[in-house]
Design goal:
Layout lengths: L5 E5 L10 H8 L3 H12 L5 H12 L4 H7 L9 H10 L3 E9 H11 L3 E10 L2 E6 L6 H12 L3 E6 L5 H6 L2 E4 L6 H8 L10 E2 L1
Parallel strand pairs: 1-2, 1-5, 2-3, 5-6, 6-7
Antiparallel strand pairs: 3-4
Length: 205
């Protein structure tokens, strides 16, 4: 049994769920190529996250809110994720999703997985159409996880993401894990070894 307050923070898209929501929205209105091109520029570091996000939303402006709400229900939880959250909650750990994705979908995932904290972006709708965004998570996950650690009074923090753009969050956490293709085996090993304690602070997996 671990007698300390532990916070486990996750990225969302590509980590806990299979879909990239903006790509799914773009596909629905035949603008996938344009959105993907901007996304790729961000991955390559040619533009920053907020610029990438703003440009993609600009392409999607005018989409029906009803269509976006319908598509926000079409996500799939990655294999093993539900079992991981059951284990985390069984150990009394607090959980968080910190994502550049959007509240309209992220809240649904949080309810399904019983996640404690959510930090995300929001769409702005006007007259039933997508009109813009409120950018809360904009390449600042390191700052946000610091604030959350302080807010919850965590003694130890783990963070998991599939993207190198989240390295600032992983570096702040006591144990940061960069995962690929939903390969949670390393994290599952950590969970299985909890009886002997958490990984040493500063661990990177």
């Amino acid at each position: 049994m671990i007698f300390m307050k532990v916070l486990v923070a996750f990225d969302l898209e590509g980590t806990l769920i299979n879909e990239e929501f903006l790509v799914e929205l773009a596909r629905a209105v035949d603008k996938e190529k344009e959105v993907y091109a901007i996304t790729h520029q961000g991955i390559e570091g040619k533009i920053d996250f907020l610029d990438s996000l703003t440009r993609r939303i600009e392409i999607l402006k005018g989409m029906d809110q009803s269509l976006i709400e319908k598509l926000s229900e079409k996500y799939t939880i990655a294999p093993g994720v539900k079992e991981i959250f059951t284990s985390l909650q069984g150990n009394g750990f607090e959980t968080a999703i910190i994502t550049g994705g959007f509240k309209i979908m992220a809240e649904k995932v949080c309810r399904e997985l019983n996640v404690t904290h959510l930090l995300c972006n929001e769409f702005i709708f006007k007259d039933g159409k997508l009109a813009g965004l409120k950018p809360h998570v904009r390449g600042n996950k390191g700052i946000l996880i610091k604030e959350l650690i302080k807010k919850v009074g965590a003694d130890y923090t783990l963070a998991l993401s599939d993207g190198i753009t989240d390295l600032d969050m992983l570096d702040i956490a006591d144990c940061g894990m960069l995962i690929k293709d939903h390969a949670f085996k390393g994290f599952e090993m950590v969970l299985n070894g909890l009886s002997s304690g958490l990984p040493e602070k500063g661990t990177r997996l």
